[in-house]
């Protein structure tokens, strides 16, 4: 079942916790890829110094102020795409960054997109559990880029589904790769899961 829009129209920390165990799916001409969400981070409002809305509304962060249940996809440091699910009510900037997935569908396509064959000679092959570990890696493996910015997560090629999966215990901790707002323990992940990012 594809998650409906009202799933996202709730407090961001609740949405973040409830996204664990849901499945991110991307349907493309090349094929379908999917992964179980095992790690996310919450970014909440203009008072959150790590949120893109901290300096107020801009053209770039406009999706954060839009309706819930839509994607906010941006390019980080000009290198890696990041995919977020917009939360709360329209006009209040908040979102959940998807940080890691456990690959469950379309693994050959994910491996191709990650360029496994280009790894240096003598280096051990990439484990499938690591194909979508880290927000930039998962968007590359899933074929997610800026063309999906503002797309609906319930009525577009990019959706999040509830497949009734049972996951491990959730753990909370500080967000990764930021220098501001580090006091907020707004990263939630499946404890001990092999696909979770390394701090």
Description:
Helices cover 14% and strands 29% of the residues. α3 packs across α4 (135-142). The longest helix is centred in the first third of the chain and has 8 residues, at 12-19. It is globular. Strands 1, 2, 3, 4, 5, 6, 7 and 8 form an 8-stranded antiparallel sheet that branches. The mean pLDDT is 93. The chain is α+β, with helices and mostly antiparallel strands and 199 residues long. It is built from 4 helices and 8 strands; from the N terminus they run ααβββββααβββ. It has helices at 5-8, 12-19, 107-114, 135-142; strands at residues 23-28, 31-44, 71-76, 80-86, 94-105, 158-161, 170-173, 187-190.
Features:
about 200 residues, alpha+beta, 3-methyladenine DNA Glycosylase, Chain A, 4 helices, about 15% helix, globular
Quick overview of this protein structure:
The protein is of the alpha+beta class and 199 residues long.
């Amino acid at each position: 079942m594809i998650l409906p829009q009202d799933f996202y129209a709730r407090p961001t920390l609740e949405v973040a916790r409830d996204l664990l165990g849901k499945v991110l799916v991307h349907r493309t001409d090349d094929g379908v890829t999917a992964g179980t969400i095992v790690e996310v981070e919450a970014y909440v409002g203009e008072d959150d110094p790590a949120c893109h809305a901290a300096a107020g509304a801009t053209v770039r962060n406009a999706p954060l102020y839009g309706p819930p249940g839509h994607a906010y996809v941006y390019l980080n440091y000009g290198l890696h795409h990041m995919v977020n699910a917009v939360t709360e009510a329209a006009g209040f900037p908040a979102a959940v960054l998807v940080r890691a997935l456990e690959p469950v569908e379309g693994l050959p396509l994910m491996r191709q997109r990650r360029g496994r064959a280009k790894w240096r000679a003598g280096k051990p092959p990439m484990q499938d559990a690591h194909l979508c570990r880290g927000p930039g890696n998962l968007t590359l493996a899933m074929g997610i880029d800026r063309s999906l910015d503002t797309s609906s997560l319930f009525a577009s090629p990019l959706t999040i589904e509830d497949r009734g999966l049972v996951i491990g215990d959730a753990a909370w901790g500080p967000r990764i790769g930021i220098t501001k707002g580090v006091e907020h323990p707004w990263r939630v992940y499946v404890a001990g899961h092999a696909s979770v990012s390394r701090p």
